[in-house]
Amino acid sequence: MFAVLANTNAGVSLELDEGTRLGGGYPPIHVLPGAMAFAEDNHISGKQFSEALSAGYEILSCIAGSMILRPNLHSHGTWGTIETSIALGKMLGFDLDQTKALINLAASMSPPNTWTPSFDGATIRNGYPCRSGMQGILAVDRLQCGFSSLRGGPLDVYGTILAQSFDPDMSVDELGSGPMRIEQNYFKYYPCCLFNHPTFNAVEQLMGRWQFAVQDIEAIKVTTVNFGSERMAGEHP
Are residues 170 and 198 in the same domain? Predict the structure, then answer.
């Protein structure tokens, strides 16, 4: 669990998160450190590891894509408990009933996190996925120790606390059909929040076309999404 803590914190701090627009925010940072640590510790083959990583990514992204989170809920770290536990359960060879019990148990251990630290510049935000990854490993241990779970953990936690709405049927609509979600991902070209990337691209194009210095700029007009204008337009953005 401490390997998960160290590697996840490093990955988030260096903005190495790979992501998806289909649900789940940055799935790999929520599953890779835990799966990697467990695979190394238990001498899991590369094939088994890849299958487990893909399974955790797929199922969590489907669950996450079927809900609308509350406005101030930061999904960073929220998903890791379920996603890490699924990957570990896959490597352990859990059957269907064990996997369902594990998802329900892990959902009840999902930590809620807010956007506020991000806007205040508080680096505790970088620790969000660390906690959920550690909880994912703990969920597997608890299931093996005999802890019981709710019959519908995701619906209870996401449907009443973390999300404004959650449609369980939607989460399995496209499961198993078409390309996997890990194949429909995106990578960050710059080590920063994705909201900054279009701006960097624009500045690079401008600098490549016209050479200018800061003192040449008279004004900057910013057009952005509602999230950016309402939540990130502080005095020192």
Answer: no
Q: What is the chain's pLDDT, residue by residue, as a tens digit (237 residues)?
A: 999 999 999 999 988 778 898 988 889 999 999 999 999 999 999 999 999 999 999 999 999 999 998 988 888 888 899 999 999 999 999 999 999 999 999 999 988 888 888 878 899 989 999 999 999 999 999 999 999 999 899 999 988 889 999 999 998 887 888 899 999 999 888 888 887 888 889 889 988 898 888 899 899 887 777 766 666 666 665
Residues spanned by the domain of 202: 194-231
Q: How many domains does the chain have?
A: 2
Amino acid identity of 207?
M
Cβ atoms within 10 A of the Cβ of 61, count?
25
Q: Is 73 helix (H, G, I), strand (E, B) or coil?
A: strand
- Alpha helices in the chain, H assignment, sequence order: 2-13, 27-41, 46-64, 80-91, 96-107, 116-120, 128-144, 153-157, 197-209, 226-231
Task: Examine the domain organization and report whether 128 and 164 are in the same domain.
Answer: yes
Report the C-alpha dihedral over residues 167, 130, 195, 217, rounded to 10 degrees. Answer: 160
pTM reported for the whole predicted model? 0.88
Give the orientation angle of helix 2-13 with respect to helix 128-144, to 10 degrees: 150
